[in-house]
Amino acid sequence: MTLNLAFLSTVLLGPAVSLAAAVRATGEATRRLAAVALASLTGAALVMLCGAVATDGSATLVITAMYAALALVVVGSSRALTLPEPVEPTPASGGPSRLDPLTARESEVLGLLAEGLSNAGIAERLVISERTVDAHLRSVFAKLALPEGPLENRRVHAVLAWRGDLGERADAG
Fold first, then answer.
1. pLDDT of the residue at 56
2. Fold designation for 104-171
3. PROSITE patterns from the entry (predicted)?
4. Cα 116 from Cα 96, distance rounded (Å)
């Protein structure tokens, strides 16, 4: 019984510390710490559930659950700590941005494109299909009225717009 209480207190200590830190944190740190706490709580819940189910004294089930919980906490915490930071566009002029018509998701997709990710990379990062990424990018291209044609690269123009560097083209006119 004492061993169980000691284990339970140590298992719940990690999520409690993460949640306490998340309350005091600001910005991106709050999101990351909350994700670590969630991963830790999920692992603790798995161990407690298997401990409750193994009433016949089956140590194998409990030990297996502990290893699974450990793996869950490690993978979940690692992933939480490597979450991409949302990139906010900042207009170079300080005035209204030409990116204002974009939805939050379109801006997120464009930001990942600006980081150099392919459609497949964006899809994996956002856990959406490549077809959905393609639809968001087509919408971005249309809303930004980007030039199209065999001599234009709309992806490059979109990234330049994101970075606030899109001006008059040298060969325009």
1. 64
2. Arc Repressor Mutant, subunit A (1.10.10)
3. HTH_LUXR_1, HTH_LUXR_2
4. 25
